[in-house]
Write a structure and sequence with these properties.
alpha+beta, about 35% helix, elongated, flagellum, 10 strands, cilium, cell projection, cytoskeletal motor activity, Surface presentation of antigens (SPOA), Chemotaxis protein chec, about 25% strand
Length: about 325
Amino acid sequence: MSGEILSQSEIDALLSALSTGEMNADDIKKEQETKKVKVYDFKRALRFSKDQIRSLTRIHENFARLLTTYFSAQLRTYVQITVASADQIPFEEFIRSVPKMTILNSFDVPPLDGRILMEINPNIAYSMLDLVMGGKGTSVNKVDNLTEIEQRIMSNLFESAFEHLTEAWGNIAEINPVLADFEVNPQFLQMVSPNETVVVISMNTTVGEISGMINLCIPHVVLEPIIPNLSVHYWMQNNNKEKEPIEAENIEKRIKHAPIPLAVELGNAEISIEDFLSIQMGDVIQLDKKIDEPVIVKLEGIPKYYAQVGKSSKKMAIQILNEVKGGDDDE
């Protein structure tokens, strides 16, 4: 009852029943405290947690970005691919959801068991095929009578695209995708049993003016050995371990090559404006330091070292003697 909205007449009837003793408030409380039984469909077993599904979504969002870059370069046209949803459903339900005639690429992913299925909407597939063949990207759905040449071109295109899954999955598993089968009728697929739980990653795809879906079907048997790697803690920890050394190394390289202004202060002198205005070539200005006294070396205007003046290979040079203590304490 807590989830229902009662009308005024229902509220009045309830209050009347309580006042006349037909209903007991304690009985209502007990009824609310009683555990509610939920219907569980064993054919639709949920074998992945929400946390694991979120991790798979993030991983394949990266895969979608890689595919966008790859197809844009190969087709030389506007391509946009984004993840629309990630769901776990029985394999039979997935097969019923795809068109009767479509483009199906089945991939082995050693060292993991099982296969991953990539389903491409025929409109998208034929638009890509037309662009590869030098056309404008128009789509004519004739998937039921593909020629061997068209099938081969499509297979090569999507096989190269699927190689980017290796990079996308780099944080959870090292895989080497290999195209195992090309099919157009989903009824002929014998990947897993109909009741096997699969994760379906649906990606919205736009190629020029043509839009459609690309679906990835990943059976539970493929993900089972690496399910612990799908936790957010593992994924973020592993991601940081790989990036931190690389980022630190890049920062170190850039810092080493950063230019720093260095100046040597030989000494100071005070003269009048009249003397300054009358300075001529050959005049000598006496400084407040003796020739054998150390000079100050400044970095970015900050005193950093003591040094002595000399020559090296007939060029003016300085030799560092000591560090200025407290020279940058205020920075």
